[in-house]
Amino acid sequence: MANLIKTKRGLNIPFNGRPIEMIGNFTPSRDYALIPDYFHGITPKLLVKEGDEVQAGSPVFYEKQFPEIKFVSPVSGKIKAVNRGERRKILSIIIESDEKMTYKTCDKIELSSLTADEICAHLQEAGIWAFIKQRPYDVIANPTQKPRAIFISSFDSAPLAPNNDYVMSSQMVDFQKGIDALAKIAEVNLGIRAGKKTPFSQVKNAKITEFEGPHPIGNVGIQINQIKPVNKGEVVWTINPQDVLFIGRYFNRGIVDLSRTIALTGPSVKSPQYYQTVICGNIESIVKGNRIGSNTTHRFISGNVLTGTQVAGNGFLDPYTTQITVMEEGNTIHELIGWGMPRFRKFSMSRTFFTFILETKLMRKLFGNMKYKWDTRLMGGRRAIIMSNEYDRVLPMDIYPEFLFKAMITGNIDKMEALGAYEIAPEDVALCEFVCTSKLPLQQIVRNSLDLMKKELE
Amino acid sequence: MSNKLRQYVDKLKPHFKKGGKLEKFHSVFDGFETFLFVPNTTSKNGTHIHDAIDSKRTMIMVVVALVPALLFGMFNVGYQHYLAIGQEVGFWDQFLFGALAVLPLIVVSYGVGLGIEFVIAQIKGHEIQEGFLVSGMLIPLIVPVDTPLWMVAVATAFAVVFAKEAFGGTGMNIFNVALITRAFLFFAYPTYMSGDVVWVRTGTTFGLGEGQVIDSYSGATVLGQVATSTAPAANLTGIIGNPLGFWDGFWGLIPGSIGETSAFAILLGAAILLITGVASWKIMTSVFAGGAIMAMVFNAIGPDTAAANFEWFNHLVFGGFAFGAVFMATDPVTASRTEKGKWIYGFLIGVMAIVIRVLNPGYPEGMMLAILLMNIFAPLIDYYVVEANIKKRLKRAKTN
Predict the structure, then answer these.
(1) ipTM over 0.95
(2) Which of A55, A65, A185, B371 counts the most CB atoms within 10 A of its CB?
(3) Considering only residues 373 to 392 of chain A, which have any Cβ-Cβ distance to chain B shorter than 8 Å?
(4) Which residues on chain B are in Cβ contact (under 8 Å) with A350?
(5) Quick one: which H or E segment has residue A248?
């Protein structure tokens, strides 16, 4: 029987617009964009030029420091444009799809005959390596370092996150194959949702741990910390469950198939549901005509509301995301005397709003669930850290977050190291940022500090 | 109404922007605008949604929690006055007298404190921070009613400049600002502040409440009586010689600093703070526990003085103990910031307060000094709590 780990720390944010379990029809995007900035920390070196024909799986650029790590085109077609910014930095590579999806073929590979190093080489050449991330630093895995273990969380607990059981139940063969490949490199740990029937509980070749609790329990970083935290000098790998499918398809069928089911979610979506698409596509054809209130300004997020990236209404998905969220921007709202009004439709983890009374079991029985109104305002001014014990309540890790953040703000690398910076990724502190009374940009602080540490220590 | 107001604010706004003719007052304008309207800045990166709480809401909760103590304090000032001059008047007359006596203190405290904050925010080009909303209300509640206004003004200015802004403003201060005000008053004007004359207003307020003090009047506070008592058990009396006991301290119709006399009103405030979760229940409980235990120790094995023999339950309701435990010790900025640390921090405040009360003959009230002392130690306590976590992490790395 699998181990069970429970925690009460965390917070499930009541956010409406959960996707129904249905695959929607849409005209697939014509343009796809590889945006190097989404692959954090790499320096791209181009392998193609404008006008070149590419197949799905053809390399487009490689990483300067480790030239063996390739980044490939998700579709077949033509390189439409290479957009550059200041100092010729590559901003994006636009690929126009020929809508045929011809794959770059290679011989079918027999997994059982491969060594760990050969598997890594295959993944690097196929462009799937980019989906393997490492702790510390939360960047694409360094190919020269052997991982202590590989961690995968089979479920996503973020607001409105897609249900991986639904998305992947028909693809468990590919998933199992991906796990088999990874298990040859290092021990694979798979986190599953406790007390729920899920296809992931049948996965072989992996050490399964059950997790119970509110968000961020589905974050792989939390699961690593609960199972066996990352120590100084160690490296562990993490990979999103949907990306394990890429590995599985590669070893099952010999092609780089980067297609993915993403969920369109959020309070401003008319019919939130799933769409079958390919990574890095344009969101316009998915979100257009599926929005509520054409007069309000909307925000489109590639990802969930806590960790996602804001994109334009015709922007491109980031390669790691499995979700699009659409919500109201709210920059024209002027709320009178926010510090004194009851504000019944505002959510707060604190109990300084009446909603906490309405959230109690009795009130919910009488009046039903609360419907909150969300927008993207900070809801207050930025301050120095005032309240204590806010972050601790939403970060189920053996870490003193406030002290870690203070070390990060002051750029004290020794302190960061001592306080657990190796164990943390920006996504893990997203809830801390959400509840912060002082409205500090904690994910940005963590990201910058991890980059600083990597630069100084490697 | 809201729309009209917004239009008006929008009309004024350009004048305060860079290049506008009132650019100098940009921070002040900002302060008033965010006071009226929730700022509509949206997140650019990071989380796209935020909890509705902000520091204004938090601070206002504390001010709301102070209201019972304030209202009771106002009434008590009037009650004590008319008791002292031997006149019987109705509730509203007593309240009016007290309110008129207390209001100038509030006005001076807020006026001086906020004035300095506005100026400094403007010089630094910062937003105005709302920390003083709480300090400004605490200050009038912890001073005796007859403290001259100019003293309050000087002390407030000193505290805001040297205890707060010198350290970097709200959230950066090491000492509780309101307590520094009180400490300044005590140490700068000792002859005035430690006598028996400041606790009850015997004179008039704006011409109200004229009368002669009755013969048996004495303005000493309970703790003052305990400290000066030569007998091993103090004979506690009110200002006209009426005997006092635990319940008088609990309900609070006794002389003392304006907001500190009624443990009952303070507990109402404590309930608000705990229900809203703004203050730490761990600190509050452990302060009371520390005080009770230390006082019991003195009761049992202490020296044979009136202070050591003062019953432990009386220690908790007389003087500034309850007020300090509920409103001062729980100030999140100056308290311990780790959960384990909070237990230790609160407990030691309780212990220190009683130790100072009992063993220090010069100063009958130990709460203020105990909290200020533990403000210094709070970072040290946190240091050891966090260090334990660091050691654990190092050990884990080594065993692998």
Answers:
(1) no
(2) B371
(3) 374-389, 392
(4) 51, 53, 58, 276-278
(5) helix A241-253
* Amino acid in position B160: V
From first to last of its 458 residues, what are the pLDDT tens digits of chain A? 468 899 999 999 888 889 999 898 888 888 999 999 999 989 999 999 999 999 989 999 999 999 999 999 999 999 999 999 999 999 999 999 988 888 887 777 888 888 999 999 999 999 999 999 998 999 999 999 999 999 999 999 999 999 999 999 899 999 999 999 999 999 999 999 988 888 998 898 999 999 999 989 999 999 999 999 998 889 999 999 999 999 999 999 888 999 999 999 998 888 899 999 999 999 888 888 777 766 778 889 999 999 999 988 888 999 999 999 998 887 777 777 777 777 777 888 888 877 777 777 777 777 777 778 888 888 888 888 988 888 999 999 999 999 999 999 999 999 999 999 999 999 999 999 999 999 899 999 999 999 999 998 87
Distance CA A111, CA A118 (A): 10
Contact status, residue A283 vs residue A311, Cβ threshold 8 Å: yes
Per the CB < 8 Å rule, is B50 touching A307? no
Tell me how far apart the terminal alpha carbons of chain A are, to the nearest angstrom.
Answer: 40
Distance separating alpha carbons of residues B105 and B95, to the nearest angstrom: 16
DSSP class per residue in B253-296: -SSSSTTTS-HHHHHHHHHHHHHHT-S-HHHHHHHHHHHHHHHH
Q: Mapping DSSP to helix (H, G, I), strand (E, B) and coil, where does residue A104 land? A: coil
Q: Do A443 and B46 touch (CB under 8 A)?
A: yes
The CATH number of the structural domain formed by A31-97 is 2.40.50
**How far apart are alpha carbons B201 and B82 in whole angstroms?**
9
Can you say how many angstroms the Cα of residue A272 is from the centroid of all Cα atoms in its chain?
19
Q: How many CA atoms lie within 13 A of A397 on its CB side?
A: 32
Name the amino acid, one letter, at A429. Answer: V
Contact status, residue A226 vs residue A396, Cβ threshold 8 Å:
yes
What is the C-alpha separation between B226 and B299, in angstroms, rounded?
Answer: 14
- Let me know how many helices (H) and strands (E) chain A has, helices first: 12, 21
* Residue A234: count of CB within 10 angstroms of its CB: 18
Neighbouring CB atoms inside 10 A of A409's CB total: 15
In residues, how long is chain B? 400
Q: Does A430 touch chain B (CB under 8 A)?
A: yes
Residue of B nearest to A440 (CA): B46
Do the Cβ atoms of B278 and A352 come within 8 Å?
yes
Q: Is B344 helix (H, G, I), strand (E, B) or coil?
A: helix
Name the pTM for this structure. 0.91
A410 and B CB contact within 8 Å:
no
Among A298, A374, A439, the strongest candidate for a mutation testing the B interface, having the largest count of B CBs within 10 A, is: A439
- CA nearest neighbour of A223 among A12, A428, A444, A442: A428
Which of A347, A387, A418 shows the shortest C-beta gap to B52? A347
